[in-house]
């Protein structure tokens, strides 16, 4: 099973993604589920990496593993980052909903801190 863990900021921007495993929907090289998830994950990593004003780290050191950490986002691109994040998260969630035995997606979003000095 491919397991994807996503941490989002309060604004819905990707803070980190961890992906591990293989979908196992079909034999290696012909697994459309794994290919779809991998395409989204790679596109997210490369898009964030190349966007001016965003600093990321991470990579895919081994087959079946991927990590992306968003270190900083400049004020001028935060709205863009939220839109890009929503696209990736929704795409992965849709794949997991359609193929629940092959892909799991766990999303954790920062909670809004209480105001009034709390």
Beta-sheet strand percentage? 25-35%
Which regions have little confidence, pLDDT < 50, spanning 5+ residues?
none
**And the CATH topology?**
Alpha-Beta Plaits
**CATH superfamily, called what?**
Cysteine protease Prp
Mean pLDDT level: 92
Spatial extent as radius of gyration: 15 Å
Q: So how many helices?
A: 2
Helix content: 25-40%
Strand line-up of the largest beta sheet:
3-4-2-1-5
Net shape: globular
How do the SSEs run, as a string of H and E? EEHEEHE
Major sheet description: 5 strands, mixed
Tally of structural domains: 1
Q: Tell me the span between the first and last alpha carbons.
A: 41 Å
CATH top level class name: Alpha Beta
Just name the CATH architecture. Answer: 2-Layer Sandwich
Describe this structure in words.
The protein is α+β, with helices and mostly antiparallel strands and 118 residues long. The chain has a single domain (2-109), classed as Alpha-Beta Plaits (2-Layer Sandwich). Helix content is 34%, strand content 31%. The protein has helices at residues 32-50, 78-98, and strands spanning 2-8, 14-20, 54-59, 65-73, 103-109. It has a five-stranded mixed β-sheet, covered by helices on one side. Helix 1 packs antiparallel against helix 2 (78-98). The longest helix is centred in the C-terminal third of the chain and has 21 residues, at 78-98. The model has no long low-confidence stretch (mean pLDDT 92).
């Amino acid at each position: 099973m491919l397991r994807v863990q996503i941490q989002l900021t309060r604004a819905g921007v990707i803070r980190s993604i961890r992906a591990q495993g293989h979908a196992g929907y079909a034999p290696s090289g012909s697994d459309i589920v794994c290919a779809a998830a991998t395409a989204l994950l790679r596109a997210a990593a490369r898009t964030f990496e190349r966007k001016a004003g965003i600093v990321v780290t991470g990579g895919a050191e081994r087959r079946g593993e991927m990590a992306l950490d968003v270190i900083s986002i400049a004020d001028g691109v935060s709205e863009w980052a939220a839109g890009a994040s929503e696209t990736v998260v929704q795409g992965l969630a849709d794949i997991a909903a359609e193929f629940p035995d092959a892909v799991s997606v766990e999303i954790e979003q920062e909670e809004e801190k209480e105001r009034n000095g709390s």
